[in-house]
Design brief:
It contains 19 helices and 9 strands. By secondary structure, it is of the alpha/beta class. The strands form 3 sheets. The protein has a 5-stranded mixed β-sheet. A two-stranded antiparallel sheet has the order 1-2.
Length: 420
């Protein structure tokens, strides 16, 4: 077996744990050369490097390594050395283990040996972790953290809204039409000052104007204060006074959680957009309709900047979940959406395709054509995302920015014909 044309007669398996790691080295014939247990610290990593060097590891011919995770300090340090690291699915390791023992015995040393044997027998069937730059790895950390913060904000919002439905319909009515609802600074500012409907009814117009200014509103303050004052003065059903006061304390606690989640999402968004703008691929990605700094950063975080990671546009489409899966047997043939995919990339792909409908006439025409052909909304969006992924692959490979005329030549011709 070879990596980049160089012989690799030794294969390494690493079974990782929280405080130690088991190492197994095998040669190309399947014979175990060494096994070792190292600690999860710098001294243990030095032991591992010494063991690899003892068995022929070098910068020109690094020993490939298999491990059951793609994250953690050990993996990061191994990737930093430039050696090929293969992240093997634990389910696959379990099936390989059964090839060598029907008794289903299991130990850390056995798992390390199974991982080394996977590379020794089927290394061509697995892909090493991509050689992404340090900058794109930082973008991935920030983009994923920001996405997690957005999800946490949604959960906190839903908890608070569910609580308010129990006793505080006035605040829900006051911000029912607001773009950000209870997540808006205005709603959170007023809710902090008046956590119960009784306290909201006591807010004066002047006090409401002050709260709106504190929330950052600069226009229509007097009119908005008048509207909120009228909403809070309406007649509503109420809980018993002591129960309402207790629910107000609980509301304040939930509001603090929401404030924290909103602040985290905002701060991480600023950090990820600033870091994304420093990457050389940013102009290419942002040139696509429907992609801004944040969504573009999420796309780059998941596809990376290793140009050898995806051999073809089809492999990138499959990774993002936009390419369909065909299952054919005898006379049966089914085409289905892909379930195994990068969920984060698929999520931002839906947003990308949806936003592009108002930014690109070609994308709009493509979506309408798919809908007319019988696709449902989600299927048409996924098909559009699939097309964008192919364009993005070619643009990144060639260093070109997006060109609407070249991207949707057929759609543009149809638009001109319809206009005529």
């Amino acid at each position: 077996m070879e990596i980049a044309g160089l012989p690799t007669p030794v294969f390494c398996g690493v079974d990782w744990a929280e405080d130690h790691h088991d190492i197994a080295l095998f040669d190309a014939g399947g014979h175990q050369l060494a096994k070792l247990r190292i600690s999860d610290d710098a001294a243990g990593f030095a032991q591992l490097m010494a063991l690899l060097t003892e068995h022929g590891d070098s910068e020109e011919s690094p020993i490939p390594m298999a491990i059951e995770t793609s994250r953690g300090l050990l993996v990061a340090c191994l990737r930093a050395t430039g050696r090929p690291v293969f992240a093997i699915n634990p389910l696959a390791v379990a099936r390989y283990r059964d090839r060598h023992s029907v008794a289903r015995k299991k130990s850390d040393a056995v798992d390390a040996a199974a991982l080394a044997n996977i590379l020794q027998t089927d290394m061509a069937a697995h892909r090493p972790l991509p050689a992404d730059s340090e900058l794109v790895q930082a973008i991935a950390v920030l983009a994923r953290a920001q996405q997690d913060a957005v999800w946490a904000r949604g959960q906190a919002h839903n908890k608070l809204r569910s609580q308010l439905r129990e006793f505080y319909p006035a605040i829900l009515a006051a911000f029912a039409q607001h773009k950000h609802g209870l997540c808006s600074r205005e709603a959170r500012s007023i809710l902090a000052a008046a956590p119960t409907p009784a306290s909201a009814a006591k807010l004066t117009r002047r006090r409401l104007q002050s709260l709106l200014k504190q929330a950052g509103r600069v226009r229509g303050i007097q009119a908005e204060a008048e509207r909120l004052h009228e909403v809070f003065k309406r007649d509503y059903l109420h809980q018993l006074p002591q129960v309402e006061a207790a629910l107000g304390h609980q509301t304040s606690a939930l509001l603090r959680q929401l404030n924290t989640a909103c602040d985290n999402a905002d701060q991480l968004e600023e950090a990820v957009t600033q870091t994304f703008d420093e990457h050389p691929d940013a102009p290419v990605i942002r040139s696509f309709p429907g992609l801004a700094a944040l969504t573009g950063a999420r796309v780059l975080a998941e596809i990376g900047d290793d140009r050898t990671r995806f051999a073809t546009a089809g492999s990138l489409k499959a990774y993002g979940g936009s390419a369909p899966v065909t299952r054919a047997s005898a006379k049966s043939c089914k085409v289905m959406s892909r379930k195994v995919k990068n969920q984060r990339l698929a999520a931002v792909g839906y947003v990308w395709a949806f936003n592009s409908l108002t930014k690109s006439p070609g994308a709009r025409a493509h979506y309408d054509r798919r809908r007319a052909a019988g696709d449902r909304h989600v299927a048409a969006q996924r098909n559009l995302f699939n097309r964008f992924m192919g364009m993005l692959f070619r643009c990144l490979q060639n260093g070109h920015t997006y060109d609407e005329a070249a991207a949707f030549q057929q759609s543009s011709a149809e638009l001109r014909a319809a206009a005529a």
